[in-house]
Task: inverse folding
C-alpha cells in the first residue's frame, strides 16, 4: 500500500473527524477511498454541488440536491451515518458560509463524541480551511506517481489512441520529464503531443517542458526567470564561484557521480550585504548548472486562510520537483521566516517545518539557492548541517574585487574605452562601495559623458560621479557593522 492509503486507513480507524485531501484529482482520490471502504466494510456517501448519492445501499440512492448544511442536516436526521465515509467535493466553494462551517463543526463534534463512526473526507484542490475547523481537520495529499505508474499511463494512453507505444529509450525519457505531474496533467500533455502529428516522438520532449513552464507560470507562486548572466559577470566571490562550478560539474553528470558515490547537491545559502551580487550569483548558477531558474516568492506564498500557505508551499515544492532538474532561488529567505522563535505566527512556523523536512529529505535534482540579507533573522535550525550543503557570507568587495567589478561594468557598456580607464584610481576612491554602487557609478559616468557630447568615457567622468555618491556602507554604516559581527560570530565561509 502507498503512503496515502496507509495513512487514510490509519486515520479513519483512529476516528479522525475530517480528512482534507488536497488534490485536483478528484476521481483518483474517490476511487482510492471507495476501494479502501470496500476492503474495510465501510459505506460511502458522496456530496458535491451538482449531485449527492448514498453508495452504501444497493442500488445507490440519490440524495435530493441541496446545499452542504442542508445535506448534513438531512443525513443527521436520517440517523444513517454510522460506519460511513462522507466524501465532500466542491466544499471549498462552500467553506466561506457560516452555516456550512457550523454544520461541519457540529457533525465533527458528534464524531469525536462517539455518536457514530463517520469520517468526513473533503476532496479539494484548495485548502481554505476556516479556523473553526482547524482542530478537527487533518490535511492529506495523494502520493505522486511512481516511474512505473507513469510508464503505465503512457502505455495505456497509446493503446487507447491506437498509436505505437514509444520504444524504451523514448519511453524512459518521457517518464523522467513527466515526473511530478498528476495523471490528468500527463493525459493532457500526451493528448496535446499526439494532436500535432498523431504519434509520440522525441520532438514531443520539449513540449513537456513547455507545459511544465506553463504550470509554473499559472501557479503564481513560482516565477521562471530568464537568465543571461554567467559566472564571468560576477567580479570577485571566487570561493563561492568555484564551489558552485564544482557542484555544477556534479549536477551535469549526476548519474555517473551518484554511481561513484557522490551525494546529490542539495543547496546553498548565500547571506550578506545587499547589492553585493547574491541575486546575480543565483542567475549565474542556473546558467552554470544549465537548468531553468525558478524564483520562489515567499510573499505570495502566504495566504489568508489557515492551511492555504502550507498548501501553497507544498504546491511550490511539487512544482519545483516537477521542474527538476532546476535551481530554486529563494530570494530574501529571512522575510519568509521572520519571527520564528521570536513569537512568529503559527503559519510561518509550520511553513518552515515543511520546508526543512523537504530540504532534509530531498533527493531530486532541484538545487536550492537561498539568499538572505540578514542572517540573524533566520532560525538556527536552517544553518545546521544537512539542510544546505554550505552557507556563504558575501562581504563588501575588497580592492581586487572592486577593480574586477568596475572592469566588468565598463566592458559591458564601453568596451573600447576600458584600456584608457585608470581602474586603480577608481578602486582607491570607492572603499566601502558594494557591487551595485559600482555598477551605478559606471552607468552614471557613461550617461554624463554622453550628455556632455564626449565621444569616449574617461576616468574623470566616473570620478566626478563617485564624488557625489554616498556608498552603501556610508548610508548603512551601523547596520553593516552589526551584520559583519554576526557573520564573524557564526563563522560562515567567506564567498571571496
Ligand atoms: P544582492 O542580491 O546581493 O542584493 P544583486 O546581485 O542584486 O545584489 O546586485 C545588484 C546589481 O549590482 C547586479 O545586478 C550587478 O549588476 C551589480 N553587482 C553586484 N555585485 C556584483 C559583483 N560582485 N560583480 C558584478 N556586478 C555586481
Result:
Amino acid at each position: 500500500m502507498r503512503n496515502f492509503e496507509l495513512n487514510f486507513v490509519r486515520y479513519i480507524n483512529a476516528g479522525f473527524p475530517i480528512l482534507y485531501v488536497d488534490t485536483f484529482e478528484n476521481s483518483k482520490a474517490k476511487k482510492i477511498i471507495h476501494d479502501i471502504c470496500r476492503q474495510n466494510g465501510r459505506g460511502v456517501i458522496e456530496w458535491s454541488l451538482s449531485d449527492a448519492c448514498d453508495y452504501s445501499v444497493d442500488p445507490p440512492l440519490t440524495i435530493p440536491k441541496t446545499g452542504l448544511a442542508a445535506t448534513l442536516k438531512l443525513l443527521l436526521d436520517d440517523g444513517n451515518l454510522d460506519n460511513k465515509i462522507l466524501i465532500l467535493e466542491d466544499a471549498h466553494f462552500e467553506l466561506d458560509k457560516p452555516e456550512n462551517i457550523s454544520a461541519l463543526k457540529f457533525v465533527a463534534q458528534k464524531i469525536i463524541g462517539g455518536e457514530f463512526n463517520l469520517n468526513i473526507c473533503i476532496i479539494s484542490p484548495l485548502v481554505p480551511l476556516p479556523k473553526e475547523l482547524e482542530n478537527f481537520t487533518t490535511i492529506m495529499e495523494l502520493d505522486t506517481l511512481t516511474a512505473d505508474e507513469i510508464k503505465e499511463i503512457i502505455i495505456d494512453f497509446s493503446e487507447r489512441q491506437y498509436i505505437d507505444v514509444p520504444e524504451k529509450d523514448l519511453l524512459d525519457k518521457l517518464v523522467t520529464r513527466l515526473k511530478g505531474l498528476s495523471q490528468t496533467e500527463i493525459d493532457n500533455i500526451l493528448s496535446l503531443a499526439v494532436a500535432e502529428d498523431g504519434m509520440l516522438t522525441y520532438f514531443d520532449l520539449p513540449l513537456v517542458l513547455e507545459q511544465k513552464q506553463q504550470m509554473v507560470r499559472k501557479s503564481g507562486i513560482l516565477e521562471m526567470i530568464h537568465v543571461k548572466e554567467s559566472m564571468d559577470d560576477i567580479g570577485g566571490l571566487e570561493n563561492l564561484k568555484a564551489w558552485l562550478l564544482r557542484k555544477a560539474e556534479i549536477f551535469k553528470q549526476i548519474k555517473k557521480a551518484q554511481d561513484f558515490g557522490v551525494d546529490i547537491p542539495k543547496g546553498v545559502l548565500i547571506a550578506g550585504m545587499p547589492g553585493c551580487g547574491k541575486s546575480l550569483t543565483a542567475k549565474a548558477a542556473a546558467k552554470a548548472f544549465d537548468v531553468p531558474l525558478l524564483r520562489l516568492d515567499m510573499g505570495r506564498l502566504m495566504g489568508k486562510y489557515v492551511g492555504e500557505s502550507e498548501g501553497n508551499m507544498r504546491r511550490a515544492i511539487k512544482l519545483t520537483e516537477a521542474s527538476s532538474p532546476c535551481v530554486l532561488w529563494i530570494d530574501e529567505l529571512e522575510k519568509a521566516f521572520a519571527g520564528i522563535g521570536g513569537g512568529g505566527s503559527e503559519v510561518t512556523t509550520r511553513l518552515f517545518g515543511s520546508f526543512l523536512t523537504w530540504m532534509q529529505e530531498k533527493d531530486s535534482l532541484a538545487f536550492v539557492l537561498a539568499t538572505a540579507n540578514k542572517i540573524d533573522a533566520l532560525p538556527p535550525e536552517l544553518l545546521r548541517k544537512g539542510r544546505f550543503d554550505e552557507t556563504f557570507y558575501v562581504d563588501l568587495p575588497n580592492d581586487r574585487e572592486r577593480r574586477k567589478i568596475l572592469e566588468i561594468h565598463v566592458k559591458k557598456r564601453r568596451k573600447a574605452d576600458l584600456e584608457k580607464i585608470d581602474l586603480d584610481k577608481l578602486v582607491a576612491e570607492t572603499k566601502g562601495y558594494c557591487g551595485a554602487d559600482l555598477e551605478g557609478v559606471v552607468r552614471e559616468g557613461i550617461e554624463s559623458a554622453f550628455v556632455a557630447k564626449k565621444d569616449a568615457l574617461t576616468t574623470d567622468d566616473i570620478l566626478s560621479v563617485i564624488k557625489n555618491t554616498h556608498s552603501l556602507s556610508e548610508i548603512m554604516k551601523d547596520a553593516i557593522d552589526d551584520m559583519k559581527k554576526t557573520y564573524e560570530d557564526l563563522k560562515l565561509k567567506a564567498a571571496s
The first helix runs from residue 3 to 13. The domain at 3-140 is CATH 3.40.50.300 (Rossmann fold). The chain has a mean pLDDT of 89. The radius of gyration is 28 Å.
